[in-house]
Write a structure and sequence with these properties.
Elements lengths: L7 H5 L5 H6 L1 H4 L5 H10 L1 E5 L5 H11 L3 E5 L24 H12 L4 E5 L5 H8 L4 E4 L4 H14 L3 E7 L2 E7 L8 H4 L12 H4 L5 H18 L8 E6 L4 E6 L21 H12 L3 E3 L1 H9 L5 E4 L3 H6 L6 E2 L2 H4 L12 E4 L4 H12 L5 E4 L2 H9 L7
Helix pairs in contact: 5-6, 5-11, 7-8, 8-12
The structure holds zinc ion.
């Protein structure tokens, strides 16, 4: 058990009206919470990075629980394909900014919560300023650059970082806080996986309920840190396998050579995380990118090029770009001979992750002009041809 991360001075003066006492009565009657704990919740300031699959359940439950200040960072708009898991949003919200929609839903759940909306991408240049007023950070991001950024920023600012990630049927959660004697994300993963080897949820899919489980674990860990209750996930990685319905945990240690949270760190300020996660593979063989507008121009101009789709056949059934050649990524190395060498090859997939991997394969096979289509068929649909369905 650890002490509450909330300074008692901030909590002690807070008062509740009758409506709030009724609202929080199931907390107030718990001897572990009482009015003193509810004051701490009201004094607490929690930041959710990302208002998506993890941020949705986390922010809904934290708002309902009476957390005083809830910050959300997200620059996206609600898409139809979000609704399968992002329970903050309804069908009528599609096309709206996520944070405006989140504000309506969270205020409907609890009007006493002070919502701070940071409608921007969380990047190195704004990270320290954004997290500065908060007591604890929930990392609900879905990509490696943001995870490293949010962990490093929390180490530098001495704030607990509550980590969660989901992939198909599996989820993970932990609490990173070197200033409380736990490890940081980098102690666990000193290097990001090679670019393109780990697909994101948009590429690999995720069971809709799964981020609900993990986001709620993150919310519970935040509340425990605020109330100073129980055993934190500090120093433990919780792994959840939905298919086997099994929770396992792994003990984590601080890496004495961690470049960020060691006493004499070799990294003491935020980096370019996109570049860090792009890794040495990109440095070895620079990958040319083409955006969807440029591809459209070339097609309209009748330029000779091969458009290679490396998605699976069932994805091609859902949506395709006319004139494409379909070779799923898993078959590509055996079918390289099918690709004409006479013209530039533009590779695409759903969002651009698998195709980056495929483009590297083609380069290694000696095909000279290879381009990765930035944003994949998803970008093609939103920027060039809305008749191509999104999924
Ligand atoms: Zn570390």
């Amino acid at each position: 058990m650890i002490d509450s991360i909330i300074d008692e001075e901030r909590a002690v003066r807070l008062v509740f009206n009758d409506e709030e006492r009724a609202r929080y009565s199931r907390h107030l009657i718990m001897p572990e919470v009482t009015i003193a704990g509810q004051r701490r919740l009201k004094a607490a300031r929690i930041l959710c990075i990302g208002a998506g699959g993890l941020g949705s359940p986390a922010s809904l439950y934290l708002a309902a629980a009476g957390v005083g200040t809830l910050g959300l960072v997200d620059a996206d708009r609600v898409e139809l394909s979000n609704l399968q898991r992002q329970v903050l949003y309804g069908t009528a919200d599609v096309g709206r900014g996520k944070l405006a929609a989140a504000r309506d839903r969270l205020h409907a759940a609890n009007p006493h919560v002070d919502l701070q909306l940071h409608e921007q991408r969380f990047v190195s240049s704004n990270a320290m300023e954004i997290i500065s007023p908060y007591d604890v950070v929930i990392d609900g991001s879905d990509n490696f650059p943001t995870r490293y950024l949010s962990s490093d920023a929390c180490v530098f600012a001495r704030k607990p970082n509550i980590y969660g990630s989901v992939f198909r049927f599996d989820g993970q959660a932990s609490v990173f806080a070197p200033h409380l004697d736990g490890p940081c994300y980098r102690c666990l993963f000193p290097q990001p996986p090679p670019a393109g080897t780990v697909p994101n949820c948009a590429e690999a899919g995720v069971l809709g309920v799964l981020p609900g489980m993990v986001g709620m674990v993150q919310a519970i860990e935040a509340i425990k840190l605020i109330l100073g209750l129980g055993d934190s996930l500090l120093g433990r990685l919780l792994h959840f396998d939905a298919l086997k319905m099994k929770f396992r945990e792994f003990h984590l240690r601080r890496d004495p050579a961690c470049p960020v949270c060691d006493e004499n760190p070799t990294i003491s300020e935020l980096q370019d995380y996109e570049q860090f996660c792009a890794g040495p593979a990109r440095a070895r063989a620079p990958l040319a990118a083409m955006d969807v507008r440029e591809l459209e121009h070339k097609r309209v101009a009748g330029e000779n090029l091969t458009l290679l789709d490396v998605r699976e056949p069932f994805e091609d059934e859902i949506a395709r770009i006319d004139g494409r050649m379909l070779i799923p990524l898993g078959e590509l190395s055996d079918r390289l001979h099918e690709i004409p060498r006479s013209a530039p090859v533009v590779v695409y997939c759903h969002t651009g992750v698998r195709s980056a991997h495929a483009a590297q394969l083609l380069q290694q096979a000696g095909i000279e002009q290879v381009y990765n289509l930035t944003g994949g068929i998803q970008a093609w649909s939103s920027e060039v041809d809305p008749a191509v369905p999104r999924y």
